[in-house]
Structures
1.
Amino acid sequence: MQAEVKWVDGFKFMGESQSGHAVMMDGSAGALAPSPMEMVLMGAGGCSSVDVIDGLKTANQAVKGCVAKLTTERREVAPRIFTKINIHFEVSGDNLCQEAVAKVTKDSLEKYCSVCLMLGAGVEMTHSWEIVE
């Protein structure tokens, strides 16, 4: 996998993925676009959500929705890395099995999510979940 990030001006940068998709990033605390740290956080939420949806479908669950809400704690001084990340999954569907939801959310953070596993080497990663209507 490859990517390229080009400086636009000020603290704005354009990232382009190997697959040809572009995204603007703003190092000015996200004034005009997501900051690079916000992109990392959204990447963790997206990657883990893929695992949750795939795991529930594999378990023959009638999943209809999944929202990953991420909260963090960061260091106060540079480098301002994340020290804690929690992902709260709000999963909806028809007659979802609580055990299945608990298993796929746990397995995502501990076994499958590439982004979370990379972050987990230096960040306390936790999760919670609920079935919503």
2.
Amino acid sequence: MPSTLTADRVRADIADVLDLDPAELADADDLLDEGLDSVRVMALVERWRAAGVDVDIVDLAAEPTITAWTKLLTA
């Protein structure tokens, strides 16, 4: 089943849990440096699973950037 997520949705969801404007996040920013922690990552995982995406925290932790996550989540 194709992903229901878009690149804009991924960026918006990440910005939402970080309480930032999506424009404040660059594609290659290390999201951990931006304040993302395990609790917020789990919140994102649950949000994206609810949207029908099979995602695992381990996959996200491997490369915590918007670019990597968008590629993983919208494939």
3.
Amino acid sequence: MAGAASASSPPPTPKSPKLQPPLLERAKGPSGLDKIVLRDPRGFTAEVRLYGGQVTSWKKDHGDELLFVSNKAIFKSPGAIRGGIPICFPQFGTHGNLEKHGFARNRLWSIDDNPPPLPVNTAIKTFADLILKPSEEDLKIWPHSFEFRLRVALGPKGDLLVTSRIRNTNADGRPFSFTFAYHTYFSVSDISEVRIEGLETLDYFDNLQDKKRYTEQGDAIVFESEVDKIYLDAPPKIAIIDHEKKRTFVLRKDGLPDAVVWNPWDKKSKTIPDFGDEEYKQMLCVEPAAVEKPITLKPGEEWKGRLELSAVPSSYYSGQLDPDKVLHG
């Protein structure tokens, strides 16, 4: 009887398809776009869309969303997703016949089943590998063959790590050059309560002043109007301090000498169709980038650019962030 009962038992409910390594799941967002959800046993999560290779969510164990995504974001081609971490490649900005900020953020990426090894960090258990290669249409507008490998990982303390590796695979011996940015949108309580430390005294190009070059004069960067600046030779560590939430984002970067700071403020917000009129108050872009000096690769050469984000409680003394705990820690 036991055997008969077993034979007539309903088949097990199929589980969601899993990717390697463990703790990943393939899912679809409300718009139908494929995404990979990274789940760390300690409660940290991140989401990566195959469209654009774009991180669109990052949460630590308390569950608060740390990245900004507009309520009006469009999750379908041909446009980029407004928020998260769009990837700007092979150009940042608008030049020549390429679309603004390049095409990588508007293409469908694939899961990379056989990525070349990265340096081993045994503390990192949860990561996803994606790859982008040019289509025939891409080669018409940017005639270079490449392999762009992307790894998104969650660190042992809930940090978000994004590593890009771009290789020149031209068969005709030609080098190519590109500019690049991780167009990172941070979620903040109120832009008027935010300051950036680590960029003071640096030279910058002001995109609101015909890209003229200036030197930053303030002790820290605060926000009272539209800002669109490219800071040059920025340090490897930058702090974004949200006074109201008593939270500090620590941005660490490698291979990316510049840093873009952008907030559209009220007038510009009203001209952006996939952005709410008042959403500028809850977001700030601080973007590790290589803009002033393009990166050049010969065939067979590879470039690596890395972004690491941490969200930590702010430490105050007389209302100021303790730099030894964040900027120099």
